[in-house]
Amino acid sequence: xxxxxxxxxxxxxxxxxxxxxxxxxxxxxxxxxxxxxxxxxxxxxxxxxxxxxxxxxxxxxxxxxxxxxxxxxxxxxxxxxxxxxxxxxxxxxxxxxxxxxxxxxxxxxxxxxxxxxxxxxxxxxxxxxxxxxxxxxxxxxxxxxxxxxxxxxxxxxxxxxxxxxxxxxxxxxxxxxxxxxxxxxxxxxxxxxxxxxxxxxxxxxxxxxxxxxxxxxxxxxxxxxxxxxxxxxxxxxxxxxxxxxxxxxxxxxxxxxxxxxxxxxxxxxxxxxxxxxxxxxxxxxxxxxxxxx
Amino acid sequence: xxxxxxxxxxxxxxxxxxxxxxxxxxxxxxxxxxxxxxxxxxxxxxxxxxxxxxxxxxxxxxxxxxxxxxxxxxxxxxxxxxxxxxxxxxxxxxxxxxxxxxxxxxxxxxxxxxxxxxxxxxxxxxxxxxxxxxxxxxxxxxxxxxxxxxxxxxxxxxxxxxxxxxxxxxxxxxxxxxxxxxxxxxxxxxxxxxxxxxxxxxxxxxxxxxxxxxxxxxxxxxxxxxxxxxxxxxxxxxxxxxxxxxxxxxxxxxxxxxxxxxxxxxxxxxxxxxxxxxxxxxxxxxxxxxxxxxxxxxxxxxxxxxxxxxxxxxxxxxxxxxxxxxxxxxxxxxxxxxxxxxxxxxxxxxxxxxxxxxxxxxxxxxxxxxxxxxxxxxxxxxxxxxxxxxxxxxxxxxxxxxxxxxxxxxxxxxxxxxxxxxxxxxxxxxxxxxxxx
Amino acid sequence: xxxxxxxxxxxxxxxxxxxxxxxxxxxxxxxxxxxxxxxxxxxxxxxxxxxxxxxxxxxxxxxxxxxxxxxxxxxxxxxxxxxxxxxxxxxxxxxxxxxxxxxxxxxxxxxxxxxxxxxxxxxxxxxxxxxxxxxxxxxxxxxxxxxxxxxxxxxxxxxxxxxxxxxxxxxxxxxxxxxxxxxxxxxxxxxxxxxxxxxxxxxxxxxxxxxxxxxxxxxxxxxxxxxxxxxxxxxxxxxxxxxxxxxxxxxxxxxxxxxxxxxxxxxxxxxxxxxxxxxxxxxxx
Lengths: 293, 437, 285
Description:
The complex is a heterotrimer.
Chain A: H1 11-38, E1 41-43, E2 50-52, H2 56-62, H3 65-98, H4 103-110, H5 118-129, H6 135-142, H7 153-182, H8 185-193, H9 198-209, H10 211-228, H11 230-236, H12 248-258, H13 262-290
Antiparallel strand pairs in A: 1-2
Helix pairs in contact in A: 1-13, 2-13, 3-7, 3-10, 5-7, 5-11, 7-10, 8-9, 12-13
Chain B: H1 2-11, H2 18-22, E1 25-31, H3 35-51, E2 55-61, H4 65-77, E3 84-88, H5 92-97, E4 102-103, H6 105-112, H7 123-126, E5 139-144, E6 146-151, H8 152-157, H9 169-181, E7 186-190, H10 193-204, H11 211-214, H12 228-242, E8 246-247, H13 255-260, E9 264-270, H14 274-280, E10 285-288, E11 306-313, H15 318-332, H16 334-344, H17 351-359, H18 362-365, H19 371-377, H20 393-408, H21 414-435
Parallel strand pairs in B: 1-2, 1-3, 7-8, 7-9
Antiparallel strand pairs in B: 3-11, 4-11, 5-11, 6-9, 6-10
Helix pairs in contact in B: 1-15, 6-15, 10-12, 16-17, 20-21
Chain C: H1 2-10, H2 13-40, H3 45-49, H4 61-70, H5 77-108, H6 114-123, H7 133-142, H8 149-157, H9 161-172, H10 175-183, H11 188-199, H12 201-216, H13 220-225, H14 234-240, H15 251-271, H16 273-284
């Protein structure tokens, strides 16, 4: 994916790119570099003194079964959030695409949650499932189901997944809906005339055409699940019960800002940085090769 | 100087000098209170500000306890720290170890030439915040201790005498049986499980929570929370949880909502739950001392406090520290303390404030409000019941919460869970020791 | 035209009604949490703490919203709304400007270090401010930008979402346009202003919505760097209404503030819906 036609010169592009590079350097790479540097030390919280420990922080982390299990939790959580945020969104988008006239009304109603902050979404869902005042929890109780996400690990995971995915369903819906509308009608008509049934048509023709959107959303949703769900987990479970919902970013926060263990927190940032770097490279190789019309 | 201001307050007048207003010293006070408590803090600050013209305090809410501490630490690293920072009791060791970041309260008072009598403060309250050589490091602000809240209507409804003796866990056990047999859905719930059922349990039964005098005597302390007394108690609670007699509602004070709504019969929670329970409960309730295990030597000893204290941060001007001294003295004054104690259910920090409250007839009018005071002060604290001073303690509490949840859901037995909590917590203590050596 | 034909292919009695039914069910499920928050913001505290709470609004709308708007935590919610507004708009505009320029440079030029710059910028997409927050805080403090709008805005601009999207879009712009510009001897910036920028209008609108919401919804960063209450933003304000100690959560006021915090971003999303969606379509072609 490169332009064949380009302009000449190198000073102008450097000037154009400079603001972003400078801002990234000052507010991103320098702090990230600091995190790498700090990962080699055990500093005290106030920055008054610090002991060089080499790779001691990494040894400590990788030898900690709870840190390793946070990887597994993150993988499960991200997969579930991505699926929960994308599948219903695609389904709703397909429905909306069929309802030509009223699609706009449904769309307007569906995009509200997109505007809700993750921390606020956490509050709303906690409010519904609060074991005490939660309306949904109460009605579940009436049906004989004893909802208790503060002790039941599966329920806790389910709740943070749904609360995290909720706003993303709107976001994904918008992308899928827009992409569906952009699918050339002639293709679908041709298939319809051939007598292909709707869902078969959907899976064999439409879904492949949506692959660039799907891939883009996959990346964005995984990144979201990794990093931006912090507010949800913080408000609903604080990583519990036990460590059932402690994902990597929550652990960076809780070790660094609750536990004041900056060395461990910095080392975790570095590990995340590496994981994310690898993920990015792999995904880009993938996008260049596989996703084409 | 503060004496003038204070005199003015007591006289109920403001003696504003137009000259002094020109050179007003402004200080920052970061705290963690919202809602009604936030309003009470704002009122205290407002009273102080209008009582004199030399100093002005700006109070800022910085989030919950953890967030406030983090904001303070981050600000210090950036050279933007406030003069006064509220730090919850589990952050005490972190603050104490930060020599160069904090200015001990006794030093602030001495430098400012302020009147300061450490003996005026209640021993078991200030003990948590006092160095081993008896110097006060931070000013106790809001302190509470766990007690047993009883829904009398629930007991009566289950055919139990509401005045039944609940002073021991043995008696509580028998009562829980009766409640369960009567079909009660939530015989017992709790708030702050680690604080009440391990930290206070240990102090109350005069057994160590950690070695080295619970960490007071050195950074090389190790957790001792997996001793027989603790294991017995947690095992019993686990059993109750399995039988549906103890309902776990969450790591913080989520159980409070269940109790206030009348769902739960018994509730172990801070004495500071008073105002909330009084406001919401539509049933007859009373407050009892925290139960203890009959037969354990030395029990009941005394319980320990929870809450927060005010730390003075390093790096400000002498004039600002004078303002700090004046404000802290104002907060410790009998009037202010007695009002705070009566409004919130937090313990008074000075002996005089407790006496004034009694003299005002408050305890007589509100039966049970002195239970916490008595429970805290009945005995001279021992090395096991003076308090806790452990690094990374907020995180260790998180570990304890996780392990206790494993017991309540029957994933682990009490011994295994507490052993695991000790091992994991000790790792953090060693890291804290390394960082602060 | 094409849509009409599809419509004819798809519309068949029962199937249509069934689709509507499914859609309505979907909307109800998605919308329920907001509805419930709204109901909770119009009733009294006792109605909530004695479950089940009502599912239809009560009569305390004015009282609860007045309490939220004019009392707040440290400052009235109105002030926090204004701060959130400045922060969100600042982030959206700032990011769009620098991203347009850098995407233009990356797509339309071959210059030394281009690939390295591209990857450096792209890497920032991946590691949000939460992960590097202590060093970032120190940088901001070093510049004296605590308690300032620039401190709230700049670190959050350092991320490549917008650059990524503009790059994708520029790649789809027909080469003939640039070719024609080049043949006409138009200078690159002329091409940028006269052709590329007008073509990007819908993308800019789409990004504005995304970034406005991104900025509006920030929580941890404002909490750390605004030590002055008059600089607080609304999302951190909601979180701060939950008691940290032994106090009682005032659900009606918390829920009223939650609803207030939703209104501006919802208005932006809904009012710019058409542009926003057209932008998405174009950038994904």
